[in-house]
């Protein structure tokens, strides 16, 4: 727990002594946070501050250059930790370790306001909320099934980490370019499994038979879930700041799989977060929708990476960009070539910025022509939605829409000497609206188990910056490759580790909670509003609010998840009852449960889940025929002992919705109370989706336990 408290102080302190680097030559000094045993303070000292001052004076290296002893002690801490921060040389740090009462130290580093951002976008802070309350996930183990890991990554350094948990029984497996010494207190386990791959692909050459990551994906996702704090992270200047995972003090265990597999993240318990898939936006495209998983959709964040095109008349046009190279900001001649079809013309204007408009020649072919002609820079005008494929250009290029394109063309036509300049590596924070459900994120329902609403939750998945393997290029062009320690990726497999990290925080705060309880806490405390205080929308259509089939219960909120008030729990037998209700064979259930025997005590499709989905899709029925669907749920009080909750229902068009009873009164903590939710509507509903929410609101307003309700006429194909 001490390391997490130290981390809190790390987030407070800004390293404002920049002259040290140039002044020190004999022994460079750095700032350290030192944790001390408060009970070891000798009686002669009147305060901890005087004790810490005496310690710093006693270990002071007289041969070291300034600053003097009096200002080497920066801060004394007596609340969140007992200790101090000081500027120390390596020899002074070694002397400190022999001081009575010394416990540990952590190097200090600056924390910029503009960070690599998703933890801050989710509201995580070092001075309040989920991070300090959970000790930053200290002691929790997050297992990642992916492409391996780059163990030398700065995100996997174990400075300030607690010891490997005694319960850990895993191993650090030796293999190609990977030995057990590469594991540490952060990366505590590493295994690889390639026998199945080699058996099915006998002619394939598996170069890296170890847990070392040659792809980059596993390093990216694992550092997103539990990476340590890293200063100076960026993607070629984009998103520059401090990188960290959602649970920066959790331990990591990587399981490398060589064959194609959906990414899975589990914190010991075992809570499993899985990516929903990248096959959206159509309904029924979801993957990894098993009811014991937390299935995660991907959303945008309030950060955009861009470049700026400045015209000679001062007009500035912003455009999405991840161009990794350099470009002179000096103004150069602009020339409009319309379709950019002629290589001969392009080669005559190599010293200019060419402007191309989508027309008879495809955008891809125009890009090829411009690249091959080696012009100075280019502006491409199109009504095409510019994906990462275009914005991560290998030469200086601005991709703009029709309206901005008209502005550029009009300027060129009116000017006697049209000029322009391009700038890159720009990062904007606070963009609105955010989050949005991104188009690629797979949607529910899940055909294999339609009675459980999927996805479960939305988390940041678009343009996520995290660590990367230096063996894999972050971007590969036609003529060259770019390599880096960090990369920016989009996908639901970027969203899932955010949820795994939050689960680790909840697990650290509530070590006795079951995986189902953790899932419930995360789902029932989500946000349904974006940063404009309007309902979260779909990225494809900003006039269309997202439904629970797009985003599940809502956007994850780590700070609220630690104190949900009530939870929906589920046992192994509950899942078996569901499998029995799905009419799976005995053998199929054994394969899933890995148990030699099981009992179908109460077969039911009505799992005690924090969400509801009902189908009104009987196409052959008459318009007047009605159907009633009833759901039973049980809530466990994990908040205050004596408390009462009142049900609040949002209207659902064309349906009658009621809950009984409407009030739940708990007399003590961990008491369980049940209720029924009833939906009545036509057997065949005209709308594809109608949705609402059931919220249980505590009498003091402290807790709002919210669950999505979906009524749908979608007919799923047989899986």
Automatic annotation (TrEMBL):
Domain annotation Subtilisin-like protease fibronectin type-III: ranges: 606-710
Transmembrane segments: none
The Peptidase S8/S53 domain, residue ranges: 137-257, 267-530
Chain ranges of the Inhibitor I9 domain: 31-114
InterPro entries per the UniProt record, alphabetical: Peptidase_S8/S53_dom, Peptidase_S8/S53_dom_sf, Peptidase_S8_Ser-AS, Peptidase_S8_subtilisin-rel, Peptidases_S8_3, S8pro/Inhibitor_I9, S8pro/Inhibitor_I9_sf, SBT
Leader peptide range in chain numbering: 1-18
Coiled coil: none
Residue numbers annotated as active site: 146, 217, 493
Gene Ontology MF term list: serine-type endopeptidase activity
Assigned keywords, A-Z: Hydrolase, Protease, Serine protease, Signal
Gene Ontology biological process terms from the UniProt entry: proteolysis
Family from the record: Belongs to the peptidase S8 family.
PANTHER family tied to this protein: PROPROTEIN CONVERTASE SUBTILISIN/KEXIN
Protein name, per record: Subtilisin-like protease SBT1.9
The organism of origin for this protein: Vitis rotundifolia
């Amino acid at each position: 727990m001490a390391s997490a408290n130290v981390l809190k102080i790390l987030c407070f302190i800004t390293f404002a002594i920049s002259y040290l680097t140039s002044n020190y030559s004999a022994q460079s000094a750095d700032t350290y946070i030192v944790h001390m045993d408060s009970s070891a303070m000798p009686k002669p000292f009147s305060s901890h501050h005087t004790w810490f001052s005496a310690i710093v004076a006693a270990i002071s290296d007289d041969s070291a250059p300034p600053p003097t002893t009096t200002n080497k002690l920066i801060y004394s801490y007596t609340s969140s930790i007992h200790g101090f921060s000081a500027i120390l040389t390596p020899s002074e740090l070694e002397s400190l370790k022999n001081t009575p009462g010394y416990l540990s130290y952590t190097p200090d580093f600056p924390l910029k306001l503009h960070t690599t951002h998703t933890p801050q976008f989710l509201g995580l802070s070092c001075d309040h909320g989920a991070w300090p309350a959970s000790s930053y996930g200290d002691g929790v183990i997050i297992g990642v099934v992916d492409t391996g890991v780059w163990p030398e990554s700065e995100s996997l350094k174990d400075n300030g980490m607690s010891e490997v948990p005694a319960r850990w029984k895993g191993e650090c497996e030796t293999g190609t370019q990977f030995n057990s010494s590469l594991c540490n207190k952060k990366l505590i386990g590493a295994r690889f499994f390639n026998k199945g791959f080699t058996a099915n692909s006998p002619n394939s050459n598996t170069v890296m038979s170890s847990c070392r990551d040659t792809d980059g994906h596993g390093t990216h996702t694992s550092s997103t879930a539990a990476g340590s704090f890293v200063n100076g992270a960026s993607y070629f200047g984009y998103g520059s700041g401090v990188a960290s995972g959602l649970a920066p003090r959790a331990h990591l265990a990587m399981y490398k799989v060589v064959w194609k597999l959906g990414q899975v993240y589990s914190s010991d318990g075992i809570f499993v977060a899985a990516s929903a898939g990248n096959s959206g936006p159509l309904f029924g495209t979801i993957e990894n929708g098993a009811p014991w998983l937390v299935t995660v959709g991907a959303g945008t964040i309030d950060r955009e990476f861009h470049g700026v095109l400045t015209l000679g008349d001062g007009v500035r046009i912003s455009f999405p960009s991840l161009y990794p190279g350099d470009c002179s900001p000096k103004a150069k001649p602009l020339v409009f070539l319309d379709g950019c079809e002629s290589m001969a013309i392009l080669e005559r204007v190599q010293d200019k910025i060419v402007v191309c408009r989508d027309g008879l020649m495809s955008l891809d072919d125009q890009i090829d022509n411009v690249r091959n002609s080696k012009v100075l820079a280019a502006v491409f005008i199109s009504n095409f939605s510019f994906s990462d494929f275009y914005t991560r250009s290998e030469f200086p290029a601005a991709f703009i829409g029709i309206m901005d394109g008209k502005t550029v063309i009009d300027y060129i036509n009116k000017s006697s000497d049209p000029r322009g300049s391009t700038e890159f590596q720009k990062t904007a924070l606070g963009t609105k609206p955010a989050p949005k459900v991104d188009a690629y994120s797979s949607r529910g329902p899940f055909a294999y188990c339609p009675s459980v609403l999927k996805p479960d939750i939305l988390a940041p998945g678009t343009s996520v910056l995290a660590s990367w393997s230096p063996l894999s290029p972050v971007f590969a062009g036609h003529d060259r490759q770019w390599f880096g320690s960090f990369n920016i990726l989009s996908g639901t497999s970027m969203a899932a580790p955010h949820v795994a990290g939050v689960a680790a925080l909840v697990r650290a705060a509530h070590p006795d909670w079951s995986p189902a309880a953790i899932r419930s806490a995360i789902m029932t405390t989500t946000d349904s509003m974006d940063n404009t205080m309007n309902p979260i929308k779909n990225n494809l259509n900003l006039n269309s609010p997202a439904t629970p089939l797009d985003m599940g219960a809502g956007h994850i909120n780590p700070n609220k998840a630690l104190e949900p008030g009530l939870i929906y729990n589920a046992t192994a037998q509950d899942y078996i009852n569901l499998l029995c209700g799905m009419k799976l064979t005995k053998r199929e259930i054994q394969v899933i449960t890995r148990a030699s025997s099981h009992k179908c005590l109460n077969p039911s499709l009505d799992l005690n889940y924090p969400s509801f989905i009902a189908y009104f899709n009987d196409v052959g029925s008459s318009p007047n025929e009605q159907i009633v669907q009833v759901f039973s749920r049980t809530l466990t009080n994990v908040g205050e002992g004596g408390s009462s909750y009142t049900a609040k229902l949002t209207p659902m068009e064309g349906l009658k919705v009621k809950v009984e009873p409407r009030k739940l009164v708990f007399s003590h903590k961990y008491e369980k109370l049940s209720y029924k939710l009833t939906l009545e509507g036509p057997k065949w509903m005209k709308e594809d989706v109608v949705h609402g929410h059931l919220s249980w609101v505590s009498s003091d307003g402290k807790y709002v336990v919210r669950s999505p309700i979906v009524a749908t006429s979608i007919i799923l194909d047989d899986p």
